[in-house]
Amino acid sequence: MNVLLLKKTDLPSFLETLAKTRLLIAPLEDRTGSSFGPVEDVTAVRLDYRNTSLSAKATVFPQTETLLTFRNGEGEEWTPETPETVLFGVRPCDARSLTMLDKVFRWDGLDDPYYVKRREKTTVVALACNEPGPTCFCTSVGGSPADETGADLLATDLGDALLLRAVTPRGDALLQDAGDTVQPADSTAVETAKGLATQAEARLAPVRIPDNARHLAELFEADVWTDLSFGCLGCGACTYSCPTCHCFDITDEQKKGAGRRVRSWDTCTFPLFTQHASGHNPRMAKHARLRQRILHKFSYCPENFGEAFCVGCGRCVVSCPSGLDIRGILERLDQTVSAAEKAA
Amino acid sequence: MSAIEEQLRRRVAELLNEKTVDLFIGYADADLPLKTSVRVARSAQDAEALAWNACCTSNLAALLPGLLKRPAELRGEWTPPRVGLLAKGCVSRSIVGLIKAHQIPRDALYIVGVGCNGMIDRHRVSGLCGTADLAEAEVFDGSRLRIRSTDGSEQEIDLAEVLLEGCLECRHRNAVLADETIGDPIPQDNDNARYANVEAFTERSIDERWRAFHEEISRCIRCYACREACPNCYCTECFAQETAPQWIGVTTEMSDLMLFHLGRAFHQAGRCVDCGACVVACPQGIDLRLLTQKINRDVESLFGGDVSVSLDEPEPLLQFAMTDDEGFITEP
Amino acid sequence: MDAMSNPYMPYPARIDRITIENNERDLKTFELVFVDPAHEKLFEHTPGQFAELSLLGTGECPIGIASSPTESGSLLFTVKKAGVVTDELHRSREGRVIGVRGPLGNAFPIERMRRKNLVIVGGGFAFTTLRALIRFVIDEGHRSDYGDVTVIYGARNPGELLYKAELEEWQSRDDLEAHITVDKGSESWIGHEGFVPTILGDVAPSAQDAIVVVCGPPAMIKFTLPVIERLGFAPADTILSLEMRMKCGIGKCGRCNIGSQYVCKDGPVFTLEQLSGLPAEY
Prior knowledge:
The complex is a heterotrimer of chains A (344), B (332) and C (282). Chain A is an alpha+beta fold and 344 residues long.
């Protein structure tokens, strides 16, 4: 696979070429700092951010998505044109999160056609982190600042140039569009990139994650959840900013016999999430909902998919209005698990 | 640790040891600069973590209905816990509002009032860092703020430039209801000009207003952080999530966003104390005061005074007086 | 992409017949016939499975399939009026075309049940998928695969019993022992009178080479399980069917889990042994 060098001065024209035949989604500055959005002006693309406020999952899993439309009792699948898309400049944590979403939306060979269609049309260009963000802990959950998982192409910012490493044939194909603005990377550039990655890794403070899914599930009845969830408001800020959260709702809308069935993001932190028509609600209590969120990510997903559904981006820490910190929660749980193991 | 924090920790430890309260709700410094987390203290040791500074933006009253209502699945006897909490002016007003709306019992509360000089708006400070993040922040000389962003750049600014707008217009810096207070009362300037943002906005054309509203609200992700952070949103079933009947859709399309935000703003009429918790809570940095301050201004001009200041006075929208303005009927 | 490969697209089915099952008229059985015969062939289900009934414009509800795959030509769903969607379904008339998504979920372990004696215990309107199981087992083509079949089914009063005509027919069969009970009888009621757990204790079927299947409201389950244990049934041989709030029905929307298990995908059928390894959050 190719490893090429693209001068920063040539980046706009590279992006311009990509945008001719693809929908280009990249980080743009906005009120929250930066967010992913469709690019109209390639010079507005920002690479000088730590991480965006929201993840990039909306590219393959939009917050609002029509599943079918209907008229007079007859339904029709909603199949809009899905363009070839380049998701440019995601951090390796976000790229990795896509592989986790793949596991859910393709579980047991049953594909979610809406997700899969977008996913198959998306080429992922990840941007390695030279500096971790204030809440990052990717290395504690199996990732790293220059992780290639989920990326088709991995870019590293060397200052005046981007090192572009093709990870998949798809990424390689994208490099064809760079034409003669790229040249083979020399060993210095490759070494510099490696050095940046090592430095970034060294700056990450480790977080102790209870890695035994079974023990974590055994903590179900422990008292610790009440105080851990004390300040939790039961809003969806953490879930909606998280790259791996994927729960959704399905609702129907209609007016005069015509309408649609639409799916939208939902969150286990809302009390109504599990409310039965009978009124019974197994997770009415706040501590039960926080427990579900944590156990789902760090116990049930490892059991079902072989890995914790957390990439260590720390967006939940930034967005929580009450200052709940998943790193502190995990460390406290790890302490509780260790104490229980000792006592046993 | 400041003198007032020391006083707070000592006093809370005493309250817990004497069993005047079963638990005490306050703030603790969080890992991120300029952020605090909600903290519950159940022992003198817990009290050591309590903090009081210009970053204590959460409205702690929002947690009270959940604590003081009988848990749904519980059978048999239940008495509410005795809850202590640290209340700055707006928090104490929210408590007054909740008591008058019969959402929490006064006698289950032990309010420790504290004077407040205003809270820092993290969104504003982050905005000064552009696409970089805030790495460090420090208040110095009492009214100055030094910040360093993750791209290395440093700035020194007046605190007043980054306080929550609501704090700049605050007329209730000290608790209006308290069982005791800590620290000295803050001199209150009761003539703070208000509603400048509303006046400026209403002077724009309807098209400009629509565009500005659209730009602001279209960022919304329906996370309901604003609603949950607000003590006044205590409804067990919010109109925005009701399914039988369904009042509004659950999508993030403009029609649904518009109905949610306009609806919620109107539901705040007669209740909003402009604590700014919603603005701080919003992960998308939406200026919700654009709507709530208009409502507050209208309530003030129609009914006079400030809401939720006194337990003895009826709330404007919880009563009817023959002198109430009926222009909406006679001149709609 | 056609509708058949999209698990979110319902198959259109016509309501051919509506039977009101109880006096309060809040329990109705809907007989559905696929509009496209090809869909009927695709919809091969096993007793215990459910389907999402889809009312475009209102929503979907997960309902257990009350008919056995041996009853070809149509599907039966017995629905209690409870929420927005079931309300709309109850207001529907014969001839209306609605949608069916499925079959979903796992099924009763009919392979494991072969050559075993079956004890089928049901209460109230949770009896629906048990009907599918019973019809399947006593079908001519299968009966010899299974041992003795004992059915204990109860409702609050005679009016609340489902499938009244069939219950009568079952009681006169000699390849099946059916005990029908009501909590409170009426003047004309000549069957058992007593709660389901009590009748189960009285009938006391042998646990030897037997599997017991229990479906009912939480209160009934709570009092029936100790009786089952006392009779000597192992947790691995005690089969239950659970309910949960659902939306997608295919294990993606994240809503219906108990621990790591999704009720729509890994259930709704669970053994007591499986459940005791899961958190008590249902």
